[in-house]
Design goal:
Helix content: 40-55%
Shape: elongated
Distance between the termini: 62 Å
Keywords: Membrane, Transmembrane, Transmembrane helix
Low-confidence stretches: 210-215, 254-260
Strand order of the largest sheet: 1-2-3
Mean pLDDT: 77
Radius of gyration: 47 Å
Transmembrane segments: 42-60, 66-89, 109-130, 171-190
Number of strands: 3
């Protein structure tokens, strides 16, 4: 009889798929979240809108002034200073809605400081032009040129009745812009101080609210099998009852009841209830172990 030879089947290795990496969710820093919570976004939005309005007024007054007289009582300060005003109100609006973190607020602070300087420039030049309306920073030939080359709407009447009031309006708008820049800087300082106080309070450890046991509390004793008390009959004697709370006067709770002991073998025979004073008889029996 032929015995079949078992054929070992080849083991096909199973291709192990690499684990799919779990995308990590970026966690925003706590300081940035705290800044968003403390920063007054509504007030900042109103501030950005007002700065936008003052920028439009300053540019409009400069355009009207140039159309009347291109050379006299002007240095085009409303044009080149408004570039920084536009950057200031755009960054202020961005820190209100789109980028509310502290880095964006710091960038806004820098723009507001620069805009503050150029608002002061407009105030200085306009005040000088109002005091000396015939001031001209160009050559004599240009300053004394005919009316056709000085402006589209040039006339002596338009110069004093329109151009000078436009310069005054630009001076008022620049003064408002100067105050708004100061308010924006103060807003940043106020928010930074609020965040600093909140961080300082969070680093202070809170008071412990855990309760500790009083000195009158008694810890129940522990017994090991080798140290258990044994009576004359070989039975283990129960350990005495120990109060785990401070005794209350007039209350039967947490007190050891009155026990009668038999004087023969010193085992408990009777148990008196501390509430109703009734006696409970106890019987101890020995059990044989087979």
């Amino acid at each position: 009889m032929l015995t079949p030879i078992p054929v070992v089947q080849p083991v096909v290795p199973v291709e192990i798929q690499p684990p799919i990496p779990t995308p990590l969710i970026p966690v925003e820093p706590t300081a940035n979240l705290l800044w968003k919570k403390k920063f007054p976004t509504i007030f900042s939005g109103i501030l950005a809108f007002l700065q936008y309005g003052m920028t439009v007024v300053i540019i409009g007054c400069e355009i009207g002034s140039v159309l009347i007289d291109v050379f006299t009582a002007t240095i085009y300060v409303g044009f080149w200073a408004s570039i920084f005003f536009v950057s200031a109100w755009i960054s202020q609006a961005s820190s209100t809605c789109c980028c509310r973190g502290r880095p964006c607020a710091t960038y806004t602070l820098i723009n507001q400081c620069i805009a503050l300087v150029f608002a002061a420039c407009i105030i200085g030049f306009d005040a000088y032009f109002i005091s000396y309306p015939t001031t001209c920073f160009f050559s004599t030939n240009i300053c004394t040129s005919s009316s056709y080359t000085r402006g589209v709407f040039y006339s002596v009447r338009n110069f004093y009745d329109v151009k000078i009031p436009l310069i005054k309006g630009q001076l008022a708008a620049a003064s408002v812009m100067f105050v708004l820049c100061l308010i924006s800087i103060a807003l940043y300082i106020f928010t930074a101080m609020s965040v600093y106080r909140a961080n300082k309070l969070s680093t202070t450890s809170p008071p412990s609210n855990q309760y500790t046991l009083s000195s009158t509390t008694t810890v129940p004793p522990t017994y090991s099998p080798s140290t258990l008390p044994v009576g004359p009959d070989g039975l283990v004697t129960a350990p005495p009852a120990v109060n785990v709370r401070q005794a209350k006067p007039g209350s039967p709770l947490y007190h050891r009841p009155m026990i009668h002991l038999d004087t023969v073998d010193h085992h408990t025979n009777d148990l008196i209830c501390p509430t109703c004073s009734s006696t409970i008889a106890l019987t101890l029996e020995k059990k044989a172990v087979w």
